[in-house]
Amino acid sequence: MNQVALVGRITKDPILRRLSEGRLQTSFVLAVNRKFKNQHGEVEADFILCTAWGKTAENTAKHCGKGSLIGVGGRIQSRTYEREDRSRVFVTEVIGEEIKFLSTKRRSSENLYDEPESNVQQQSSEGNSEQENVKSKFHLPQEEKDGLPIY
Q: Distance between CA atoms of 135 and 122, rounded to whole angstroms?
């Protein structure tokens, strides 16, 4: 059995991508608080890479921004790929088959797509608003490399 159910906050605005075969895809990192506090009395979080496809990806990118509280139901998937320098990268991610919007935040950008000049019709969000300071609630990674957080 391979089932996952998570509730957490999106760490940055999801970007919608149209792949060469026409499928829509988005990836995002979900910050999920742990049930217990560490030795300093702070709640820690796990940062979990999630991917959604098709209409689920489109709706997530359209309606959720940084700080949105969502529920993700799906499965764990592992994959590998080779970089240009021939080093191997191992990725474990949650494939979100069902995503529930529990408390959405507006996107910081109206652009849903990876490429601004994309030939995909762009749908604008309802506008810009102030972003919630997620760092005050979660321990966020310092930087990203290849779209994955570095701890």
A: 30
